[in-house]
Design a protein that fits this description.
Elements lengths: L3 E2 L4 E6 L5 E7 L9 H12 L16 E5 L1 E2 L2 E2 L4 E6 L21 H8 L15 H19 L2 E9 L2 E2 L9 H4 L9 H16 L6 E8 L13 H10 L4 E6 L10 H4 L4 E2 L5 E2 L8 E2 L2 E2 L4 E7 L9 E4 L5 E4 L10 H24 L9
Antiparallel strand pairs: 1-2, 2-3, 3-7, 4-7, 5-6, 8-9, 8-10, 10-16, 11-16, 12-13, 14-15, 17-18
Bound molecules: flavin mononucleotide.
């Protein structure tokens, strides 16, 4: 029943969608990291928050972060960092009809099957509001990675339903991603995606798609060879996100269409004296360990479960009923999932970067 993730850089999230607030405790962040919440944390929360555009849920939350502990005079203390975001625009009454019935393909039935009790107001812990804590902690991990290792992590919407964007993970810039509310750095594809979401939203329905993510500047050697493989922990991080249904690293499922000789990333001598691969079908991870190339992964998000279209379901007494859901919902979770995916990759990389410090204790053998 864990709400915690990571080993050396460990986070525990808390809070429900329509309770007092949501947040995170970070344990293991090194001391002396310069941290200004307004500059280092709030911008990522602003990218995740609801009510940003017509493509997101109209719930209005400023999502202002409060630092409760672990930061003093602008620097981390090395003690647990407590971050809180209070819920302001909770309207539990909008969910009254969910008290006794189960939304198709949401977590209502399975939560009740597990606990025998559930917070029916806005999905409780299953709500994407839980990801506030992940994004806040991910922003701290991002700062640590940037300061300590020069790592940059970016994600973008690469597909909405069948509309594909053309994006080069090696060169894509944050300004291109943030240039439109879809967060797709291919402007022509972004326009098509926007039109499609508008059309589907107008019918009270929803859409899914794919978020792609890159980490540039990750040194070779992060990860582990067996159970804690870097790509296995990335998969665990991403598939723990609400509505995430698929994960790929590098060539992913498409790679199976090639032969070994076509698929291999040939090594050439790199400018820094290390082997380098001009192609990157491995997605920057080989044998569960980073190889120094950009880390590239993709996460598939299903169409939002809560839709205004009438659907068949069952109530707690076992009666067949129909439901056309009310409440405020994302017609497509993809634009808001972008900062959440970035946060999860930052958390995995910061954790493994710290864990590698315990490996690199003796001088290199010449
Ligand atoms: C950024 C984001 C926003 C979401 N918004 C909604 C929403 O408005 N309505 C909804 O039903 N599900 C939404 N979800 C997904 C649900 O939280 C999720 O589908 C639900 O918890 C069931 O879990 P599962 O889909 O992983 O099986 C969102 C997910 C993300 C990542």
């Amino acid at each position: 029943m864990s709400s915690s993730f990571g080993k050396a850089f460990r986070i525990s999230t808390f809070g429900e969608s329509h309770g007092g607030g949501v947040g995170v405790v970070i344990d293991g962040c090194p001391p002396r990291l310069a941290l200004d919440p307004a500059v280092d944390i709030q911008p990522d929360l602003d990218r995740r928050r609801p009510g940003q555009s017509r493509f997101t849920t109209p719930r209005q939350e400023a999502d202002r972060v409060e630092v409760l502990s672990g930061v003093f005079e602008g620097r981390t203390l090395g003690t647990p960092i407590g971050l809180l975001v209070r819920n302001k625009d909770a309207r539990p009454s909008a969910y009254e009809e969910m008290r006794d019935l189960f939304r198709p393909s949401h977590a209502d039935y399975t939560t009740e099957a597990k606990y025998g009790v559930r917070n029916w107001q806005g999905g409780g812990r299953a709500s994407a509001r839980e990801t506030v804590g992940r994004v806040a902690a991910g922003a701290v991990a991002r700062k640590l990675l940037r300061e300590a290792a020069g790592v940059e992590v970016l994600a973008w919407v690469s597909r909405v339903q069948a509309i594909h964007a053309k994006v080069d993970p090696e060169t894509v810039a944050k300004e291109e991603i943030e240039a439109n509310p879809i967060r797709c750095p291919d402007p022509a594809a972004a326009q098509e995606m926007a039109d499609l979401i508008d059309e589907i939203r107008g019918r009270g329905d929803s859409l899914g798609g794919v978020v792609e993510c890159v980490a540039r500047g990750v040194p070779a050697g992060l990860g582990a060879p067996v159970f804690d493989k870097l790509d296995a922990e990335m998969a665990s991080a991403m598939l723990s996100l609400p509505a995430a249904k698929g994960f790929e690293v590098g060539s992913g499922f498409e790679g199976t269409l090639l032969t070994g000789s076509e698929h291999n990333d040939a090594f050439v001598p790199g400018p820094d004296g290390r082997p380098h691969t001009p192609t990157n079908r491995s997605g920057g991870v080989q044998g569960g360990i980073s190889n120094g190339e950009p880390i590239v992964c993709r996460v598939a998000f299903k169409p939002t479960a809560t839709v205004g279209v009438e659907q068949q379901t069952v109530d707690r007494a076992g009666n067949a009923v129909s439901l056309a859901a009310r409440g405020r919902h994302d017609p497509c979770v993809l634009p808001r999932a972008v900062p959440v995916v970035e946060a999860m990759l930052c958390l995995v990389l910061a954790d493994h970067w710290l864990r590698q410090r315990a490996v690199d204790v003796l001088p290199e053998i010449g």
